[in-house]
Amino acid sequence: MERGTLGQNYVRDMLRSWGMEVEEAPDKWFPDWDLKTNGKTIEVKTDLKAHLTGNLCLELEALDHSKADLLAIVTEYPKTVYFKNLPAVRDFAHQWPKKIKGGEFAGELALVPRSIFIDRLKPQILTSQPQ
Description:
The chain is α+β, with helices and mostly antiparallel strands. It has a single domain (3-53, 66-91, 113-127), classed as Trna Endonuclease, Chain: A, domain 1. The protein is built from five helices and nine strands. It has helices spanning 3-17, 50-53, 60-65, 86-95, 114-121, and strands at 23-24, 35-37, 40-47, 55-59, 70-75, 80-85, 99-102, 107-113, 124-127. The strands form two sheets. Strands 1-2-3-5-6-9 form a six-stranded mixed sheet. A three-stranded antiparallel sheet has the order 4-8-7. Strand 2 (35-37) and strand 3 (40-47) form a beta hairpin. The longest helix is centred in the N-terminal third of the chain and has 15 residues, at 3-17. It is globular, with a radius of gyration of 14 Å. 28% of the residues are buried.
């Protein structure tokens, strides 16, 4: 199972466990959004290294191409989901002063310390244990 699918399935199952109807993007590849619920679309990103680095990886190309209303970033240890409106994260990532090349498509990435992401963007945070 691809890492993106892991996070997408986790968010889908979490929302369904709350009684929400969740539609998945067609054909496993749909650049506009990954999930849809309650009239809102969600782009889901999975960051498997955040617990090791303390950073959240924001892929600018993915943020630029998505037409989703919300961004959900899924991290591990503990399993945590950060929800924020996608345009705010996109603007924040583009303004981040230090960028590197990397990721799945060797594009531009903003590696943002998790504490700064939380402090500045104030995302809704859902976690499997207290932080």
